[in-house]
């Protein structure tokens, strides 16, 4: 049977389909790949395929089992996840114990129960240790699926007990197509796809108006006369929305800078007389963009700054250095 309802990921799906056809599914899987690449959807598709009451080439999507699963209400589909997206959020040991107790009973529907443990890197040591034995030998009729972005997030003892399935970042074109299918206008779909880093989840969550407003603000700032003090003030303004108490959302800040990187990329593509990759062309923002060499340099500076922010640099300082660099090396015409 084919797994349905997942965008791209032919290889991961093919692996699971073959294992299912040969009745060689593992009882524990590690789904490795970027956020929003379809790991959760694949777990759902696998569950539906295993429990559909009217299966054909794929799960039917219409029977009570398929529908309850899609609505997140199937009693044999359990999800464990950290309580929120904060880096410090943990999957607590009591929750893992409760899950282990629950799966000691046969699946209610008589099929296969699937336990999805999202962001398994957030299992604390106690939780991971409690989980070990169950991963090695879950009660019959159960499949456990752990999702991580990188296997290094979890203890090697967990990794070694799971069969790995790799998920790749989705192609831009595929994401753009999917966004259009969901009703987005073509140009907006291509822009969001370009900014998504291969994650449909991120593409869907992107606030395009906010991103464009930030880009306009940045370009306006760079075109106006100003010095280090003005740059520092703008850096503070840009960083502020990403600070929550002690914590800084570095990833969010880096994503905000993606559109600036795209601006220089498209300026370079345009200056080189090439077309095809220029998402910003229609935005009107490329008017007065730098010529080829400074555009390349600008792109490089933005990427370097993003790397510094992710590597724990003081964000206001990294951004100020970026703004100074762009003023000197990638000025608009
Ligand atoms: Zn069905």
What does this structure look like?
With 333 residues, the chain is of the alpha/beta class. The protein has two domains: 10-166, Rossmann fold; 207-329, no CATH class. 50% of the residues lie in helices and 9% in strands. It has helices at residues 10-21, 39-51, 64-70, 93-102, 125-136, 156-159, 172-181, 186-195, 200-205, 208-223, 228-239, 250-271, 292-310, 315-329; strands at 28-32, 77-80, 113-117, 142-148, 163-166, 243-244, 247-248. The chain has a five-stranded parallel β-sheet with strand order 2-3-4-1-5, with helices on both faces. β2 (77-80), α4 and β3 form a beta-alpha-beta unit. α2 packs antiparallel against α3 (64-70), α12 packs antiparallel against α13 and α13 (292-310) runs antiparallel to α14. The model has no long low-confidence stretch (mean pLDDT 91). Bound molecules: zinc ion.
Which fold name corresponds to the CATH topology of the largest domain? Rossmann fold
CATH H-level superfamily title of the largest domain? P-loop containing nucleotide triphosphate hydrolases
- Order of strands across the main sheet: 2-3-4-1-5
Helical content, roughly? 40-55%
From the helix content, strand content and strand pairing, which structural class follows?
alpha/beta
Provide the domain count: 2
Percentage of residues in DSSP E strands: 5-15%
How many runs of DSSP E, i.e. beta strands? Answer: 7
Ligands in the structure? Answer: zinc ion
Uncertain ranges: none
Shape: elongated
H-E order: HEHHEHEHEHEHHHHHEEHHH
Sheet with the most strands, sense and barrel status: 5 strands, parallel
Highest-level CATH class of the largest domain: Alpha Beta
What is the typical, i.e. mean, pLDDT? 91
Oligomeric state: single chain
CATH architecture name of the largest domain: 3-Layer(aba) Sandwich
Work out the helix count: 14
């Amino acid at each position: 049977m084919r797994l349905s309802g997942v965008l791209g990921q032919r290889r991961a799906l093919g692996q699971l389909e073959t294992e299912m056809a040969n009745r060689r599914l593992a009882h524990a899987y590690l789904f490795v790949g970027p956020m929003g690449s379809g790991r959760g959807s694949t777990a759902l598709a696998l569950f539906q395929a295993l429990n559909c009451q009217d299966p054909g080439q794929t799960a039917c999507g219409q029977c009570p089992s398929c529908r309850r699963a899609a609505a997140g209400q199937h009693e044999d589909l359990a999800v464990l996840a950290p309580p929120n997206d904060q880096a410090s959020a943990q999957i607590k040991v009591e929750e893992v114990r409760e899950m282990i107790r629950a799966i000691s009973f046969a699946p209610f529907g008589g099929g296969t129960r699937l336990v999805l443990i999202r962001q398994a890197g957030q299992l604390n040591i106690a939780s991971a240790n409690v989980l070990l034995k169950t991963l090695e030998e879950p009660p019959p009729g159960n499949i456990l699926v752990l999702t991580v972005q990188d296997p290094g997030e979890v203890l090697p003892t967990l990794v070694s007990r799971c069969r790995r399935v790799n998920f790749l970042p989705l192609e831009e074109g595929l994401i753009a197509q999917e966004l259009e299918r969901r009703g987005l206008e073509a140009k907006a779909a291509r822009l969001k796809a370009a900014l998504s880093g291969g994650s449909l989840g991120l593409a869907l969550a992107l606030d395009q108006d906010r991103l464009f407003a930030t880009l306009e603000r940045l370009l306006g700032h760079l075109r106006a006369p100003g010095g280090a003090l003005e740059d520092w003030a703008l850096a503070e303004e840009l960083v502020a929305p990403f600070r929550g108490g002690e914590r800084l959302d570095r990833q969010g800040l880096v994503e905000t800078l993606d559109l600036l990187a795209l601006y220089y990329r498209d300026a370079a593509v345009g200056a080189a007389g090439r077309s095809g990759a220029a998402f910003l062309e229609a935005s009107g923002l490329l008017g007065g963009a730098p010529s080829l060499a400074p555009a390349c340099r600008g792109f490089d500076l933005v990427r370097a700054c993003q790397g510094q922010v992710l590597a724990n640099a003081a964000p206001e300082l990294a951004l100020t250095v970026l703004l100074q660099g762009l003023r000197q090396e990638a000025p608009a015409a």
